[in-house]
Amino acid sequence: MRLSIHETKAELGRRAAGDGAELIRRAIGERGRADIILATGASQFEMLEELVAAERIDWRRVTAFHLDEYAGMTATHPASFRRYLKERFVDRLPQPPGAFHYIDAENDPQSECRRLGEVIAGHPIDVAFVGIGENGHLAFNDPPADFQTDEPYIVVELDEACRRQQLGEGWFATLQDVPRQAISMSIRQIMRSGAIICSVPEGRKAAAVRAAVDGPLSAEVPASILRRHAAATIYLDRESASLLGQGSSD
Fold first, then answer.
1. Fewer CB within 10 Å of terminal CB in the chain, N or C?
2. Rg for the chain (alpha carbons), in Å?
3. Cβ-contact 88, 180 below 8 angstroms
4. Torsion over CA of 239, 245, 246 and 249, rounded to 10 degrees?
5. Where do the domains of the chain lie?
């Protein structure tokens, strides 16, 4: 794992998207296609804006997988991650992707996990675009995360810290409105990715970044597992990196 530290979240987004775009181009050049994972949330705004504008990517050769979604969430709800990805990514691409495998949150959660697991088994992931939650979660794998399951997608319970983050970002009117359960890509499935681009801007993430980078590797800090991935890069701005004891920048 390496760190890439930038002055602003706009610069962070440009660099993360640029590095990710190059990985996509390389995969298409080497095997004729690329398979990617996309995250959502406020941390991904700048990165996704830059990624959809990246040049020299034939998106028709790209298959994308949805990282996580609230159980039972309709695709029209303002907080729907399906809606987020359609509006902020798919609809802005110069051509439609070869395939986009959304999580159907209105399906039975266990059945949906099995369906997606069967699909992703045929798609070795070239690059996963992810973030880190204020509670240190990776996808919706809240602490203590399951580091052992080999299932690609799992049903998870959302802890209060995670739910309060969703409220604080403005996705819901009250804490009671935030779902308590979600479908999430598992830790091991994320770690199977050839490369991981992890975008983490803003000071509210600083404590989680410090715990993930400088603290013990533990299921209590799910994102700390990224330290075991040889091709994972965490992209930070000065605010999110502000509590690190040491770090390398470029």
1. C
2. 17
3. no
4. 0
5. 2-201+219-226
Cβ–Cβ under 8 Å, residues 124 and 150: no
Averaged pLDDT, groups of 10, the chain, 250 residues long? 97 98 98 97 95 97 97 93 95 96 95 97 97 96 97 96 90 91 97 98 97 97 98 98 68
Helices 45-52 and 9-31 pack at an angle, to 10 degrees, of 40
What is the side-by-side strand order in the sheet with 68-70? 68-70, 181-185, 153-157
Q: What is the DSSP letter of 98?
A: S
32: left (phi over 0), alpha (psi -120 to 50) or beta: left
Q: Helix (H, G, I), strand (E, B), or coil: what is residue 131?
A: coil
Question: How far is 167 from 172, CA to CA, in rounded Å?
Answer: 5
Residue 6 tokens, joined: 């930038």
Secondary structure of 178-229 in HEC code, one letter for each residue: CCCEEEEECHHHHHCCCEEEEEECCHHHHHHHHHHHHCCCECCEHHHHHHHC
What's the confidence (pLDDT) of residue 229?
98
Two tokens, residue 35: 């398979």
- Residue 230 contacts by C-beta under 8 Å, 6 or more apart in sequence? 1
Read off the pTM.
Answer: 0.94
According to CATH, the topology of domain 2-201+219-226 is Rossmann fold (3.40.50)
Which residue carries 């495998």 as its tokens?
A: 101
